[in-house]
Design a protein that fits this description.
- With 108 residues, the chain is mostly helical.
- Helix content is 77%, strand content 0%.
- α1 packs parallel to α6 and α5 packs across α6.
- The longest helix has 32 residues.
- It is elongated.
- The relative contact order is 0.18.
């Protein structure tokens, strides 16, 4: 599931050509992790704005897929949502990385 977010790092590496730029993505991913349902399941979050942010955050669905395996077992809906989100991030990231690679090859 983390290969999807790895493709975003691949895009940043090909676009910038800098290791520091790729490493600077860590705070961005950390914010996505913090604003997800990592600490508490979404149905237990009482603050409305935080529940809304966690609902739109793709990381929440990845975490809930893993959480379903550990707590309830094979929950098909949570696993399907998790793999769908991971696949969508992978497709978008690889498309962007391919475009960045084409740009980088033209420049050299």
């Amino acid at each position: 599931m983390t290969i999807g977010f790895g493709s975003v790092g691949l895009f940043a590496a090909l676009r910038t050509g800098s290791g520091e730029a790729v490493q600077s993505l860590f705070p961005v991913f950390f914010v996505f992790l913090f604003l997800s349902s990592m600490s508490l399941p979404r149905n237990l979050i009482e603050t409305d704005w935080f529940r809304t942010v966690a609902t739109y955050n793709p990381v929440s669905y990845l975490i809930e897929a893993i959480r379903s395996l550990l707590i309830t077992g094979w929950d098909g809906e949570a696993l399907a949502l998790g793999f769908t989100v991971a696949g969508a991030v992978l497709v978008v990231g690889m498309f962007a990385a391919t475009a960045a690679l084409r740009t980088r090859l033209v420049r050299t």
